[in-house]
Amino acid sequence: MTSGAPYGNRKVAVAGVALSDCGRVDDATPYALHAQAARRALADSGLDRSVIDGFASAGLGTLAPIEVAEYLGLRPTWVDSTSVGGATWEVLAAHAAEAIAAGHADAVLLVYGSTARADIKAGRRTSNLSFGARGPLQFEVPYGHTLIAKYAMAARRHMHQYGTTLEQLARIAVQTRANAAANPDAMYRDPITVDDVLGGPVIADPFTTLHCCIRSDGGCAVLLVSEDRVPDLAKPLVWVLGSGTAVSHTTMSEWDDFTVSPAAVSGRLAFERAGVRPEEIDLAELYDAFTYMTLVTLEDLGFCAKGEGGAFVGTDRLLRDGDLPVNTDGGGLSACHPGMRGLFLLVEAVRQLRGEAGPDRQVRKADGALPRLAVASGTGGWFCSSGTVVLGRD
Known about the structure:
By secondary structure, this protein is of the alpha/beta class. It is built from twelve helices and eleven strands. This is Acetyl-CoA acetyltransferase.
C-alpha cells in the first residue's frame, strides 16, 4: 500500500471524526446530537467551519440534508442524502470522496444523530416491525414477515446449507461484548457467555435477545477533505483508499442466495480500487444489527471462504488482540446502535488507525506497531444494500 494512494484525481483524507453523547441521552434532540457531533469533528480536524462546502445527511428532517444543514448554519454547494438503511454512511462516504476527488467539493461533512431509544421511552414513537406495507413489501407484510424475521430466515439457511451452529453465532456476541468491555462509551460492558446468549428469550428463531443489536441514542460525524487541506490538519493522516457500493433486493423472493450479501460486490470493488487484499487488512468494522450479519459479511469480504464463517468466528480471532479484530468498540451488539449505525464504523476505524483508541483497547500488530489498513462495511435493509470503504494511514 502506497501511503496516500490516489482515490481519483485528488487524494481524499479523513480530517476529523467524533461522537456525540451516546447511549442513554434523555435530554437532547436529534438535531442537538447532530450539532454536537459536528462541532467535535470540526475541532478534531483543526479546521475552521468556513472550509466546509459539502454536506451529507440522512434520516432526519423533511428535506434532508437541507434542514439539518440549516440547523448547523451551513450553506453547502454539494449535498447528498442517499438513504439505503445501515449502509447509508459508507455509500455517502463513497459519494463524498468521489466528489472531492473530482474537484466538486473540498471538505464534506457527514453527520448523523438519533434519539431512537429516548423517543420510545418517552412514548414519542413506537417500535416498528417492518419498513411499511407499500410497493413490493405488500406481498410479504400480511404474512408477518418482520424485519428481524428476514435476517433470522437467512441465518437458518446458512445453518442448513453449511452446518453453521447457534454456538458459533453466539461466539460473535460474546467477542463483541468483550471488545465493548474496554470501551468507556459502550452502553453494555458486562461480560457474557455463549450460554447467556443461547439461554435468552427468543426474538425470531434462531435469534435470542443477545443475537440482536441494542437500541441507543447517539450521533457522530466525519469530515473528509481534499489533499490540499492536509497541511492544516491537527491529527495523523488517514486516507480514503477505495470504496464500493452495491444493492441486491427488496423482496426476499428476489434474493438469489440467502447466504450471500451485497458486501460480496461492494467489498470486491473497494479492495480492487484501493489496491489491497483482504489478508492485508488489520481490523474490520462491520455492521452488526444481528450476529449473522457479522458472519456473512466476513465471508463476503473475503476473510474466509463461503460457508466457513462459523469456524472462522468460533475462535477468539475477532477480539481486539485477535487475528482479525472486528467491531473494536463493541459494535451495534453492545456499544451503541441509534439507527443507521454505519457512520460509527468509520469513526472507530479512523481512531484505531490514528492510535487514539486508548491503552486498553488500541489494536496493535504482532510487532507492536499501529494498524495501517482498516475496512468499514455497512449493510442496509435486510441485506438489501452494502457500502464498503478501505482506509489507510501514513
